[in-house]
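Q: Here's a chain of 137 amino acids. Please give me its 3D structure as tokens.
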Amino acid sequence: MKKIVPVVLRHQQQGLEILAFRHPLAGTQLVKGTIEQDEKHEQVAVRELFEESGLVAEANPTFMGNLSLRFNQQNWYFYLCEITKVTSDSWLHYCHDDGGLEFEFFWYPLHQKPSEDWHETFQESLGFIKIYFDSKK
């Protein structure tokens, strides 16, 4: 199964921060979603980011690579998204997934070790993203 992960970053004095959220039933996560029929990966990244966070991304996000997760062998495809509007440090967004849930969004320091509140798949994903940006230095 393929999943698309839209990655949104911001630069702070202490380093890069990545968009993350607290799911009311499943801990701390990154935005991710499933490809719908006849949908391109880039379109999924933009759509999922909007549906789950309310953020509008510019078209044609940058492909960062894919990761086959050790936990469940799912293939996750990562796209760096540029958002069209600067956001606050945290916010709540009502998402219609699973009958409707409120997600608490915040910025997470990319180089900070994730706590146990992060599911193993997202811990692995953060490691993948960190390696990607370390290789760009």
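Q: Can you summarize the key feature?
A: Helices lie at 41-53, 120-135.
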